[in-house]
Amino acid sequence: MRLSYQSEREELFRLLNDYIQSGGMQPLYDDLVRRIFAFQYRYNKVYRDYCITIGNISGEIQSADELIFLPVSAFKNYEVKSGDWESEVVFRSSATTGSVRSCHHVRDLDFYKWNALRIWNTFYGNPAMYCFLALLPGYLERHDASLVAMVDHLMKVSRHSFNGYFLYQHEDLRKKLEECREQNIPTVLFGVSFALLDFVSAYRLDFPELIVMETGGLKGRYQAMPREEIHDRLKIGFGVGQIHSEYGMTELFSQAYSGADGLYSPSDTLHIITKQINDPLTHENAGKSGILCAVDLANIDTCSFIQTEDVGVVHEDNSFIVQGRLDYSELRGCNLMFDS
């Protein structure tokens, strides 16, 4: 007998917890993926309609290889929900003038915060050890960014008296960083790329212990430049040996982090695969460039299977690199059905 919607949802969260506690055992992953797919096919009309368009009319898969990934552009044009529920908050993407913003409806903000904190602990340890500073103009001015929600929560857990956000007060930030360095305070600086570059064009620090967490985004302030060049400038400007990066999206509940060389390690609830650029329904082999697609096990209430607009390479150990944005002129077929 089929479980009710609520019972099925509760069972998925129980299985997710079992999977996390197991350390990511493959059999539990495979079972969870199949069950989440069936749940979202049944209760998420946007996802179901797309699956049917692609050719899955049964609502079942035998393995993760059969997964159908919803183009991320669907979040710009539709309310993507699995079930009928009230949104506690709505995360929105940044946007250039005149463009449509993605909207990710969040049923349980505490769960998002819990998962983001759990993932941070895995990569960097207890936030209580750190002072968190954030140079996030653009994000702060919108008040609806998932990144700000995550950083807010890290600061709340940290409770360090120096924690704080900076818009364009670069001199204030310099003073705070110097204080942290002089007092040997473990410090994390979250920063959008263009703001970090603006900062190091005016100031030069020598703070080798600083964790600089670059979150992307040149916002038209700089001509397109390779990631390596951005990081080289930041390493010189802050006096650090490496630049860290966070890979997250408005439409995702899970993150990946990179400590060096642009190589991201996904969290246990995030699995990245590639699809062929000229045939986005076909898997690409490990080590070859393709469209990055995300299996986000934490996205039970919306959609766990998302085709991003990033191109990159996934390695055999599930680490990956991001090479750039997708050129839509190269795409064919149903991949475009949600584009505005």
Give me the secondary-structure category: alpha/beta
Order of strands across the main sheet:
5-4-6-7-8-9-10
- The run of helices and strands is HHHEHEEHEHEHEHEHEEEEEEEE
Mean pLDDT: 91
Report the sheet-strand fraction. 15-25%
Separation of the first and last Cα atoms: 41 Å
Helical content (DSSP H or I, runs of 4+): 25-40%
Radius of gyration: 20 Å
Instruction: Report low-confidence residues grouped into runs of 5 or more.
Output: 332-336
Count the strands?
A: 15
CATH architectural type of the largest domain? 3-Layer(aba) Sandwich
State the CATH topology of the largest domain: Rossmann fold
Q: Which term fits the overall shape?
A: globular
* Integer tally of domains: 2
**What profile does the largest beta sheet have?**
7 strands, mixed
Oligomer: single chain
Number of helices: 9
List keywords for this structure.
single chain, 340 residues, alpha/beta, 2 domains, seven-stranded mixed beta sheet, six-stranded mixed beta sheet, 9 helices
